[in-house]
């Protein structure tokens, strides 16, 4: 094994206890020693493991670990259950795997060793997908890509991604990797919800670079109808209120340009969202329907936020996008006036989502950005607004809007296909 190249590691782990989850979060955080040497894929069942193998390239090679889940009351119950399910796979006899535990006994692999910077992975046997599934290069077309109507992408974990994950049915959630889960929304009695499984993903870092990478990864790994960016943004104080929703029809990269004689000259660089989709959503009737859906979805734990949801406005306008957080008086106001006075918000990712729509036309991918105003890009940024936690409510507001829009997007897609 080439020690200079990263390997692939697949871990089947139910991680039922809080201690298990906390341990793996520590082990697999982006700056861990393990992540510096390996791409790590965590799945919670053998079905999801088999599905993973069906969605990767046939030259994908990996080390397989099974988390034993030792409990004082029922030692290695998880590991035994996982192995029992593995034995049902047609390729089980060709599969090399290793039992993993924090309380290793016998031939178990001690998971605590993974925290060691000098730990060597070349002691383990690699599995190869092509060999396991007996797929030749010429037959690779049978390695089908899973289809989802939606993938939701967020730049941040806290307050943006976690609100989606908290509202997925626990039994439907499947961890695909450290950044990605799939699942279905918890059932809601007063809203005609989107009911199927969908993807929820998060970037490793904020910004356009990670947004571009994450978007490309999602489009490569899945057949998607919609890629939606959910999250928070800065707003133009003269045009929007705190917690309003901005759904851009165009995104302007204000950092693009040239440096001439020591002076930065901005150049126009725009990315469009599907005009027909925006026109479909941006009607009085549908905006009213989206807002009614958002109100219906407010849960009892957050009902003190209902007045903000009731007062929200949805703006279909232009978003500015750049590589830095802005805390400068009048910056956004001046920028907008220089761009035909149309900009309503500013953030750091949406240009990549607009470009994904433009670049993946062959995939029939449609993209949407749904962001809630959390500040006015000035020096008065704060953690609270009238006693309300700003980031948390803004992230929640975006989640409500995305969830309320999803059934409408299915209607649009079905109408679009009929017209074609």
Quickly count the domains: 2
Distance between the termini: 50 Å
The average pLDDT is 85
CATH fold label of the largest domain:
Rossmann fold
Q: Helix share of residues? A: 25-40%
Secondary structural class: alpha/beta
- The proportion of residues in beta strands is 15-25%
Organism: Limnovirga soli
Protein name: Nucleoside phosphorylase domain-containing protein
GO biological process, one term: nucleoside metabolic process
GO molecular function, one term: methylthioadenosine nucleosidase activity
What is the fold's blueprint, element by element?
Blueprint: E1 7-12, H1 18-28, H2 33-37, E2 38-43, H3 46-53, E3 61-67, H4 77-86, E4 97-101, E5 109-110, E6 127-128, H5 129-133, E7 147-154, H6 157-166, E8 174-177, E9 180-183, E10 198-202, H7 208-221, E11 223-235, E12 245-246, E13 250-253, E14 257-260, E15 263-266, E16 270-272, H8 275-281, H9 284-297, H10 306-310, E17 314-315, E18 318-321, H11 331-338, E19 343-347, H12 350-359, E20 366-375, E21 384-385, E22 388-389, H13 390-419
Explain this structure.
The chain is α/β, with parallel strands linked by helices and 420 residues long. Helix 6 packs across helix 13, helix 7 (208-221) packs parallel to helix 12 and helix 9 (284-297) packs across helix 13. It is 33% helix and 25% strand. The chain is built from 13 helices and 22 strands. Strands 7, 8, 9, 10, 11, 12, 13, 16, 17, 18, 19 and 20 form a 12-stranded mixed sheet that branches. Strands 1, 2, 3, 4, 5 and 6 form a 6-stranded mixed sheet that branches. It has 2 domains: 7-141, Rossmann fold (3-Layer(aba) Sandwich); 147-419, 3-Layer(aba) Sandwich (Rossmann fold). 37% of the residues are buried. It has helices at 18-28, 33-37, 46-53, 77-86, 129-133, 157-166, 208-221, 275-281, 284-297, 306-310, 331-338, 350-359, 390-419; strands at 7-12, 38-43, 61-67, 97-101, 109-110, 127-128, 147-154, 174-177, 180-183, 198-202, 223-235, 245-246, 250-253, 257-260, 263-266, 270-272, 314-315, 318-321, 343-347, 366-375, 384-385, 388-389. Mean pLDDT is 85; it is low at 137-142.
